[in-house]
Amino acid sequence: MAALRVLIVESASRDGQRLLDAIQGGTTVIEGCLVADPEILASRLQAEQWDAFVLSCTLPELPALDAMALFRKQAPAVPVILSIERGAMDFPFELLENGACDFVFKSNPSRLLAVIERECAKSSLSRAGQEDVAGTIDSLPASEGIARFQQLSSNLPECYWLADAETRAITFISAGYEHIWGQHVDALYADYRDCLTYVHEADRERVADAMQAHREGGLDIRFRVLRPGDGLRWLHARNFPVRSEGGKVLSVGGVATDITGQLASKLNLSYYTHFDALTALPNQWMFYDQVQRMIALSRRSGLPLSVMVVDVDRFHEVNQALGYAAGNELLRQMAGRLSGSLRESDYLCRLGGDVFGILLPELADSQQAGIVARRIIETLIMPVRVAGQDVFATASIGIGFYPQDGQEVHELLSNAQLAGAQAKQQGRNSYQTYSSGMQDHMRERMFLEIDLRNATLCEEFVLYFQPKVSCADGRMTGVEALLRWKHPRRGIVSPDQFIPLLEETGLIVQVGRWVLEEACRHAVEWQRAGLNMPSVSVNLSARQLQSETLLADVATTLEETGLPPSCLDLEITESMLMHNAETAIRTLSALKKMGVTISLDDFGTGYSSLAYLKRFPLDAVKVDRSFVQDIAADSDDASITRAVITMAHHLKLKVVAEGVETPEQLALLISHQCDVIQGYFFSRPLPADQMTSVLLADQRLPSNHLNTGSRKPMALFVAVTGFDEVISWLGSEGHRVCAVPDVAGATQWLSGNLVDVLVCGAPRKGFDSAALIRLAGELQPRCERILLADSRQWSRKSVAELSGSGLVHRLIHLPVEPDAFQRIVDEALTRRHISEEYSRLSHEVEVVERQLVQAEEDRRRLSDENMALQAQERQGYRVLQEVLTALPTPVIGVDVDGWVALLNEAAIHRFAERGIAPGVALSGVLPELSEDLAGGRVSIDGIDYCCTSQRIGMASQAEGRLFLLTEIGNRT
Known about the structure:
single chain, five-stranded parallel beta sheet, eight-stranded mixed β-barrel
């Protein structure tokens, strides 16, 4: 093989010699020449042939752009590699965009030889393609026919396809397409011409013309494609017709084979065996071999050794946003920057995809490795210019040390990759060294996943049920079905541990289907037992909502279990909805048409848009427990909850509060007109048998917590003395009255009961009326608060602040006449009763409005179904008329009253003299016919008939009867 001739354009002799040394000593024979003078460069370009140029970006005598122009003029087909200084302020983006193939750092030119070999190999392949490639390689085997083609499986590396002969649309393509082209098949199914997008520009027109000329078979062509990540690849494609028994071409089959390796072998290009075609770095095989060698050396000499795995963050997003070509350019530039961040003794490779491996000899501890990792992170964080855009790429780095993190190459690299995954989980753009705890966590996760898969087979999942209770009457409105895992060794496993694994493994669809079936089955059993079970709620996962089988699963479950659709409530989270809002709207609308209800779970924790929220076909929102748990202590949470309830009611939605655990939380929620509560205050999640006991006992919320129309208003007197007669009179008038001497007693009452009016005694030593007023404002904000104060206390700062803050609704100056005091409290109780009654009625109106909206939706749905049914019946009636008209024997149809409603042509012609016609009584024109003649004989006008009579009718019409008269002499 002839030597490769490389011209190095460099003025600094030290840098030039370093570049010359870097390209010597490899398996490829390279003749290097160093030149710096522009005139000498021009003459040598004109007089000699070169295989590659290495151009310095810092020539004082010759600007790099001028040198690039000279190369394009005199040697346009020769690849140009840039040599740049580490830490250069101006990265040569312009040169890369104007034809330069790659770059290396002068401080570490170890990658230069591989880059030169890669570019020269590309040039050889390109020249081979411009000549007759068929003469350089053997022809590949031809197809063995249709039968053989149908037996080929998608596991073979070749790409097989079938296309419709007329439309040319792809009807089948094997998995080999993604392996050979490097593209997903979805776009090809949508448009058969998508494959041409990735054909090399120089071959694209030739391939398109050949495909057009050989639409029905006979294609035999070799061409190049630009595959993401691997650069240039050579393919050999053929097609053949698939004919019917009559010889008509129905489909066109084809096969494409990657022949890059064969072509490279024929051209003696060993580069592709050992190096990555895109980045010119050693490939995975070479890296594993080098690490194995260094491990063997380390065993003998005791020298330290470490490896790094560098995983580019969010590389998939770059591919999606800018295209695969931009992704390739990003990887190529990152390879150059990584090599420039390392010592010459370090060994860099591309393990595959967006992952690089680094071998670091003589690196002993995590501190030294951290220095290298931080230098890499700082280097990569600089912008990279791809497709005319500045892209900021980061990387997650995992580090492993020999021998403590692995005794052999696969173990060492596996543990380094595990550390990299940990760095990615902790926020990316960072590094982690391997620790045994990571392995333990991974092993624990693996065993948990194995047990989880077995759990679906061994029926270890069980359902627990948590009641949901009405804030209006305290009765249960339904239950929520909650999944639990009853592990044979671990016991009950928390959903937080296994639900994410179910999502990740895809088992959530199968398990979710089981949950749906079990929940509906239990609900039906409770209903058939006569227990109060209005509805059962089932949580849907994100994967279930995206599953194509969800609608069929719900419909099948309702049909098989017999649960009415209105008794099934499906809960989804707002983050699930916003992930793909338009698709979610279509899916939920289809579910609503079935008659099920939809609840929005964990409301307030996601990022849902109100513009979308009003478009979702929802029935209820569930306030997340994170707001409810601090509602009694945090005014912000109370305000948020009140705003959510108000907004939901205005949108005609029911409100369910989760995580209600204390009387204080319940009191606030009821005062804010919450519809339903759910939480430990009423009941923990229970297994099915215990839930049955709760239903049998008809357990309800305590009546003293409820705000019903029959509840009498209540006044709480705290530390009020001298008004015993007033308190007694209020009780005799039907008001509920309670008197307590101190703050402790008041707190207990405020926590456990609804208080309409609070009368607080005058401030004094040992009694902090201000603290009590503030507590009442937090626990029961709708309570009317009255404070007593004498002339000495009017001027006190605490009383003035309470009066000005709005926490005190009325301040009574002592002394006060009992009659006046009695009238003030009585008016306050009456006012609160009227206000509460108005709020209750308003809330009931909202509930009725929601029910009316639901009823209107049901009416519209039933009306549409009825119209569709009537249209179907009318269509059936028209078909029946056409069939009867074509019959040669008389057919007569009568309605339930005996009036002729249907006649065919044969009946009209045969009995015209009798005066038969639609709208006349059958008994008046053909008295011979009656219901008793079914299957009998009848004689009409001297002709004997066999009369067949059949009762008929449609769902929307009254029944009638159809007579078919067959002349006996004509029976066959």
